[in-house]
Write a structure and sequence with these properties.
By secondary structure, the chain is of the alpha/beta class. It contains 16 helices and 20 strands. The strands form 4 sheets. Strands 7, 8, 9, 10, 11, 14, 15, 16 and 18 form a 9-stranded mixed β-sheet that branches. Helix 10 runs antiparallel to helix 12. The two termini are 31 Å apart. The structure holds ligand BES and zinc ion (2 copies).
Length: 510
């Protein structure tokens, strides 16, 4: 999909369809005619000011007949709207204007795009609305539309695609906004395309995306950008004494890797902060010898979503060029119950020197992250963020609505949560009191890899903290959020690409 800006008013944009956002407050055409003088109308927010009388009375009728009420994500359309060059006018509900937000703006753009695409529109135009900053609006519309354009059906042959969805594709997206906002359009594009890149990786099945294939994708990213990509292979991981990671990998024929992606700013940074992004990339999690039930196991192809998010964020940072260095460390393994698999009760020695009793081989994410967190600190990272589909327990706590955020540092957590607000990714702070550590006692080793049934996402985080201290650290448990379970009007069922936007935002804020 190509994107462009246009400075034309809505009526003068040539497109197959133009989408305008309308709010719940009733659209009273006569009121406008009476209340405002001609000059004043020019200052009114579009689209209300400039609509042709015939079209506005048609819209009035839609409201009157309750065919369209402006509720968030509602859609209606008018063919051959009088006064417009576009063939169709797409009305998108924005909800109550007082409650309109950047998140609603992305969603409105996404809803319009998915609706238009299904109806065979090839050139879609979309206009800002409400009173958000005009530059922000351009970025948000681009993000919302590009994210909505993502599809998961990559392995459908064209014949079966044609049956379900008429093979439709939006070729051109035109956003109404002046040329002065071009950098915001580019920023929105970089962010959304990076997030879609992450979603493509997460969508891949376990047979086609092994740790080695993920590493190859990262190497390709290095060729395409100025990022430096290094892949640590098995013998290197052995030299580094990463016993926790190697223990997980030994049950699979697929060799483990750690993918390291480095971004260095050209100019000398003002601060000595060095951001570290650590992402769990288990390309398939069977549970190992503590094998998972077969029902729903196919979902465990998305157990690499944390690592894929780090790669996506780095792809965007290569374009957006933050002021500080950022290093991504992505440990990748396949968790299988092969003949050489580790057993429950095995003791492994992590890179940090701490010994771990592996009571459950399905708690493998924390084992590979332990070594990756140690390595990231050895690489000089001062501020760490890890993301992992770590526990089913976080889904019990927060459902599919928010990412769980754990931290050992209040001010770093505040900065991070502020970035997540701007990025429009919903998160929630979780506790990490010292008392939770009482569950992590092993009679034989320094610590076990699991606690009791209770507070499972917190004891998992507490385990990671033993390897993250003393760096400022944030752990994101994205198990409930990495996969969208049901189609939304603005996003298809499938990988979400969370928390790519927040990672980009926090790096750009630093
Ligand atoms: N990859 C899973 C967690 C998961 C669950 C991700 C649901 C996405 C959706 C993780 O490796 C795991 O198996 N965790 C166990 C830990 C338990 C053995 C302490 C869990 O949450 O059940
Ligand atoms: Zn597991
Ligand atoms: Zn897992």
């Amino acid at each position: 999909m190509k994107t462009q800006l246009t400075a034309f008013p809505p009526e003068q944009v040539e497109a197959d369809a133009i989408a305008l956002i309308f709010f719940e407050e009733k659209f009273e055409e006569e009121e406008f005619e009476e209340k405002f003088e001609e000059e004043e109308k020019d200052e009114l927010p579009r689209p209300v000011a400039a609509l042709d009388a015939e079209t506005s009375s048609l819209i009035g009728e839609l409201y009157e007949n309750k065919e369209f009420s402006g509720k968030a994500l509602e859609m209606a359309w008018i063919h051959r709207p009088a006064g417009f060059l576009a063939q169709r006018l797409l009305l998108v509900g924005g909800g109550k204007s007082a409650e309109f937000s950047s998140a609603k703006m992305r969603q409105a753009a996404g809803t319009a795009l998915r609706f238009a695409k299904k109806k065979g529109v090839r050139h879609l135009a979309i206009a800002p609305a409400g009173d958000l900053d005009p530059g922000d609006q351009v970025q948000l519309l681009a993000e919302g539309a590009i994210l909505a354009d993502y599809e998961t059906d990559v392995y459908k042959t064209s014949a079966s695609k044609r049956e379900d969805q008429a093979g439709s594709k939006i070729e051109q997206l035109t956003i109404l906004g002046g040329r002065e906002h071009n950098s915001r359009l580019e920023r929105g594009k970089a962010i959304a395309e990076a997030q879609n890149f992450t979603r493509e990786l997460v969508n891949e099945p376990g047979n086609l995306l092994t740790p080695s294939v993920l590493a190859a994708r990262a190497i390709q990213l290095g060729y395409d950008t100025e990022l430096e990509v290094e892949v640590l292979r098995k013998s290197h991981l052995e030299d580094l004494k990463m016993g926790a990671l190697l223990g997980v990998a030994q049950g699979s024929v697929e060799p483990p890797v750690i993918i390291v992606v480095r971004y260095r700013p050209k100019r000398r940074p003002r601060s000595d902060e060095h951001l570290g992004f650590v992402g769990k990339a288990v390309t398939f999690d069977t549970g190992g010898i503590s094998i998972k039930p077969s029902e729903g196991m196919e979902k465990m192809k998305y157990d690499m979503a944390g690592g894929a998010a780090m790669l996506g964020a780095m792809k965007a940072l290569a374009e957006l060029k933050p002021a500080i260095p950022v290093t991504a460390v992505i440990p990748s393994v396949e968790n299988m119950p092969g003949a050489a698999a580790q057993r429950p009760g095995d003791v492994v020695t992590s890179m940090s020197g701490k010994t771990i009793e592996v009571l459950n081989t399905d708690a493998e994410g924390r084992l590979i992250l332990a070594d990756a967190l140690t390595y990231a600190q050895q690489q000089g990272c001062t501020h760490l963020v890890d993301a992992a589909t770590l526990t089913g327990s976080i889904v019990v706590a927060l459902g599919h609505e928010r990412v769980g955020v754990f931290s050992n540092n209040g001010s770093w957590q505040e900065r991070f949560l502020a970035a997540s607000e701007v990025a429009g990714e919903k998160m929630w702070p979780m506790p990490l009191d010292e008392e939770y550590k009482d569950q992590l006692k092993s009679p034989i080793a320094d610590l076990p890899n699991i606690g009791t049934r209770w507070g499972g996402s917190i004891t998992a985080a507490m385990f990671l903290k033993q390897f993250a201290d003393p760096a400022a650290w944030i752990h994101l448990d994205i198990a409930g959020m990495a996969w969208i379970e049901k189609d939304k009007p603005y996003l298809p069922e499938g990988p979400s690409g969370i928390p790519v936007r927040t990672l980009i935002q926090v790096a750009m804020d630093s």
